[in-house]
Design brief:
Layout: H1 9-25, E1 38-39, H2 47-57, E2 62-73, E3 83-84, E4 88-95, E5 99-106, E6 111-118, E7 122-127, E8 138-143, H3 149-158, H4 163-175, H5 179-185, E9 195-207, E10 219-232, E11 238-247, E12 253-260, E13 266-272, E14 275-278, E15 284-288, E16 290-295, E17 300-306, E18 313-314, E19 333-335, H6 336-348
Helix pairs in contact: 3-4
Length: 358
């Protein structure tokens, strides 16, 4: 039938010699190891489980809390520059659907530097101290959904010699809006009747700079669930509204929330820190004790940390006037909507002589 051809002895010697040679060079040595990220064990969860976590966050209807606030100005991120400000004291009051009052104070002396409010439609910002001798002290009003980029360009072009310094002084705070923090503190509940949800997985290499470099947990491969929320449009298409990131290591935890604008670009990128208990009633457990809000287009980042989680007041009802900041210091008022329209009229040539305010 079939005859067997003996494997030539000379081939065997050649292969054995090659193995010994390569082993000696280290090519096949088991001692040769390339350092890689430590793969962390992940937990499993269904989509209903993930939606339940979102809805648990959404149980917070109102909150009043003292916080540590730290701002990072990313106006010059293209140059690799990020201006970090010292930690300030803050007091925040939020209430659904989209109400917020935020006060930023100088530590120790507890003097308000900035106050801001929003009732979900309009915002008001009182710049009480500007670090420039009062030059930029103002009471600013505007509309939440308005685009004021035209005013930003005017500021940049107003003073070719000192404009850059001016922008360094006021840019982060000029772009800051109270409603940016409302959506981070008052997470909107899921709504499967109105939105479409899609679950997927992703793994990311991460560094923990709090660990030593030789620690196996310094460089890790961490698994996440992604839960994308799509808005149903009138024409039958879908637009992404939010993306939830759930950390799958050691349990399931909401670690990140990305909120998209109408152009489906990231408007807010929110990181939720380790969880704990807020208040003293025991009703609001496993909620983040630190929140970092990044606004890529507005070029700033703010970290909010509860000073005393047990003293946080939750579930109370506040009157609407709490979220309608008044110009009690009689600051010079600036209506951004009116200012933007005046500038558009001037650019298009529609402004009548004498209309522009000096």
């Amino acid at each position: 039938m079939f005859s067997r051809t003996p494997f030539p002895r000379s081939y065997s010697i050649l292969i054995a010699s090659l193995v010994v040679f390569l082993s000696g060079c280290g090519a096949l040595s088991p001692k040769t190891q390339n350092k890689s990220a430590t793969l962390l064990k992940t937990e499993d969860a269904s989509q209903p489980n993930l939606l339940a976590i979102v809805d648990r966050f959404a149980r917070v209807d109102s909150m009043r809390a003292k916080m540590d606030l730290k701002v990072e100005d990313n106006s010059y991120a293209e140059r690799g520059i990020a201006e970090k400000y010292k930690t300030a004291d803050g007091e925040v009051v939020v209430q659904r659907p989209a109400n917020i009052l935020l006060k930023i104070q100088v530590p120790i002396i507890k003097m308000d530097v900035i106050q801001m409010s929003s009732n979900g439609e309009e915002f008001r910002v009182a710049i009480l101290e500007d670090g420039a001798g009062g030059k930029y002290r103002k009471f600013v009003v505007g509309t939440n959904d308005a685009d004021y980029s035209i005013l930003q360009e005017e500021v940049k072009n107003a003073d070719p010699n000192g404009g850059e310094q001016l922008m360094q002084n006021v840019n982060a705070f000029a772009n800051m809006r109270p409603q940016h923090f409302t959506e981070a503190l008052l997470v909107r509940a899921s709504d499967p009747a109105k939105f479409v949800y899609l679950q997927s997985t992703i793994s990311q290499e991460e560094y923990d700079f709090k660990k030593k470099k030789n620690s196996p947990l310094y460089w890790v491969l961490r698994g996440y669930y992604l839960l994308d929320e799509f808005r149903k449009n009138d024409d039958g298409s879908l637009s992404i509204s939010r993306r939830f990131w759930f950390d799958r290591v050691g349990g399931i935890r909401l670690a990140r929330l990305q909120i998209f604008d109408d152009k489906m670009e990231i408007a807010s990128d929110i990181i939720y820190g380790l969880e704990g208990n807020l208040g003293e009633t025991g009703e609001y457990n496993n909620l983040p004790l630190e929140i970092v809000v990044t606004r890529p287009k507005d070029k700033y980042k703010m970290k909010l940390t509860y000073q005393a989680p047990a003293t946080v007041s939750l579930g109370k009802t506040y009157k609407p006037e709490v979220f309608l900041l008044q110009n009690e210091k009689n600051l010079p008022e600036l209506d951004l909507d009116k200012k933007a329209q005046e500038l558009r009229n001037r650019i298009t040539g529609n402004q009548k002589p004498g209309d522009q305010k000096k």
